Amino acid sequence: MESARSGRADLIRECSPCLAGVLSSACQTLYVRRRKVNFSQLRCARVLLIGSIIFLGGCEAPSEPVRSTPQPESSSGRSYSDKALRLPIDEYSVSPEDHAVVQKAKIILANACLKRLGSSYSLPPAEDPAEDAEISRRYGISDRATAARYGYHMPSAAPAADEKLKPLSDDEKRLVFGEQGDGESAEGESVPDGGCFGEAEAKINEAGVPEAAISFASQVNRESFERSIGDERVDVVVKAWSKCMAESGYSYDSPLESVGDEKFHSSEKAGAEEKRVALTDLDCKGRVGLIEKWGSVEAGMQKEAMKRDPEKLIQLKAFQESQLRNARKALSGS
Question: Which residues does the annotated region (Disordered) include (predicted)?
């Protein structure tokens, strides 16, 4: 019993860089100031798909209003809605739609800057969220329709920004990201600090990114998950899920192991066997109540942790609201 629990904990520690929330289709394609964010090489992108609390101001993740105690929604095979995965700290993340608004505004502002500097280059449009994307895979897959169609694969989305973006020349890099000589002029104008993308971010972020607030919320999110892995209540329900899977002939110690099974990620599309395993995974989650029980444990941990510094959470929410207002203003042209 102790060795199995230790093994799950080791898996989480291996993927700890992901736990602050770096895994979402939006985050994988986002160009952050001065560099392109690309998380496709992270092993935990397949093993531990958290992605439930990536904050505006750097790498963003989707969310909906908080539901502090996750509740299951019954359907054929007992599936769950994305709302069933809401945890208290998710009140301080953003929806896929709002994320898209902010990214589109940044691209529009950056492209206007590039045009002003006399460049013919333009950044590609920001992608829209996949219509059938799951908001979180914190405890593995959670949506039956998605599992039936994609298995353990991520739902299809628009072509990734890094696939659409043509290679940049040194001069284009300087104009876009401010590399190789901030402040040098092009067409008689000075390149903004951080390049045109830096200028766009400064306009959208306005008063600046509340780094301490983001760090605190991310810490709450990360630590509750890490603590829950070693919680006896979670261990009991995960073992029950594993036993249920074994009854159907599938040997997995946890739903984080099944979602990260390498044999399911050697091809671009899910095969029949992968879909069968994924649907059995969901059936077992429903039978043992894994999502609501695990979520309830984490919700309690997060509520206590959030009491440590509520002012930082207020700052974070205010920043997100301000950022969205500025983005909508930029998109309206006012």
Answer: 62-81, 178-197
CA torsion sign, 300 to 303 to 306 to 307?
Answer: negative
pLDDT recorded at residue 284: 98
Three-state secondary structure call for residue 11: helix
Structural contact between residues 320 and 95, judged by C-beta atoms closer than 8 angstroms? no
Please state the domain extents for the chain.
Answer: 2-332
Side chain identity at 188, as an amino acid letter? G
Which is nearest to 331 in space by CA: 10, 109, 95?
Answer: 109
Give the separation between CA 186 and CA 189, rounded to whole angstroms: 5
Helix 96-116 and helix 195-205, axial crossing angle in degrees, nearest 10: 130
Task: Tell me the two tokens of residue 185.
Answer: 């002029």
SS3 of residue 295 by DSSP: helix
- What count of Cα atoms within 13 Å lies in the side-chain half-sphere of residue 295? 29
Q: Say how far apart CA 51 and CA 294 lie, in whole Å.
A: 17
At 326, list the tokens: 């500025």
Q: Are strands 189-190 and 185-186 parallel, antiparallel or unpaired?
A: antiparallel
Question: Please, which residues have CB within 8 angstroms of residue 243's CB and are 6 or more apart in sequence?
Answer: none
DSSP string, 61-94: ----S--SS------TT----GGGG--GGGGGS-
Residue 2, C-beta contacts closer than 8 angstroms, at least 6 positions apart = none
Q: What is the pLDDT of residues 83-97, one digit of tens each?
A: 457 899 999 998 888
What does the pLDDT look like over 118-171, one tens digit per residue? 999 999 988 777 665 565 789 999 999 999 999 999 886 545 444 555 678 888
CA angle 136, 141, 144 (to 5 degrees): 110
3-state class (DSSP) for residue 35: strand
β-bridge pairing 35-36 and 185-186: unpaired
291-to-87, 130, 294, 295 alpha-carbon distances in Å: 11, 23, 5, 6
